[in-house]
User: Fold this.
Amino acid sequence: MTGANQKERGISSYSKKGKVYWRIDVWLELPDGSRRRKQVSDIPNIDLARKLRNKLKADAFEARHFQKPRASTLTLAAVWKAYAPTAELEKRSWECRTHPPSPRH
Assistant:
């Protein structure tokens, strides 16, 4: 690691608009053996940068940080099937020439 601003592994300082900020640039080892790079900048002080780096490492170790979102099993047809009866009963614009008015309860 090179650079005069390098304080510790993965954390460095830089100045922006006359203020000193910190950035994190770490490679995280995931439980499946793969590696992911995580970069975060605009951290106001080094203590927060250290805490965030340690949290990212712990989350990567526990496989929480890089989990992919699950695909939804809900389809548009299923949503419409659930919504259509309510729409017919409560929405006036539902009633038009092509759909005769439904009896209201």
Observations:
- The helical segments are 46-61, 76-90.
- Residues 1-6 have pLDDT under 50 and may be disordered.
- The longest strand covers residues 19-29.
- The two ends are 75 Å apart (CA to CA).
